[in-house]
Fold SprT-like domain-containing protein.
Amino acid sequence: MTTSKPTNARQLGELMCTVTKQVLWSPSHNELICRVGSGQATYHRFDPGSRQHQITYGARMIEAKHRPETARGWLSGREIQQRGYFDGQLSPLNLLAHTCCHEFAHLLQHNAGKRFRGSVHNPHFYRILDGLHADGQANATKAALRDLAARHGLPISDDGFELPDPGSERTHWAVGDTVTFAAGGGEKEGEILRVNRKTCTVKGTGPSRGVRYRVPLQLLRNTSA
């Protein structure tokens, strides 16, 4: 099933914030500020000065998780498939609910003193994330997000994506194609140097000149004439 990107991504992000606070958060975890950003960047941050946690959900991330060709390129999509969360099914609702759990797991990881520079998605993080799914909090998050979105007239599809075959995706690309793709929280431009089985090697152009990237096929956008 193909799902078009929503025009109300910011509103959906606000609902994700509401559900995160109502279902997952407890005042014992310090103060939590939840906000919606305009880009793709989605993250947890802790301010030691104010002792405030902040979770940001990117509006463009929400849009991307409504499209099968971009959804599985996100870490949250790989986690759902590889760790069997929500029975391994990728759908917009599962992806957004899991994103809430993923970022909240970082909050719990920080409070436990197990988040380190260069070691963020470590075994302790995944023990926390596995626990959120095993103890029912992930399903509660999904149900709350589904119901809240429906009440606001913003239903989120729970139909599983029909994912494109990587082999057929590879035939769409050729050396020399000019492309755009998301990397490092922003949009990059480049030219394909090599087409691999699941990725393309891309040399950056414009502001990214001099940098090489290994980009998953599903994250590439063709800008060639």
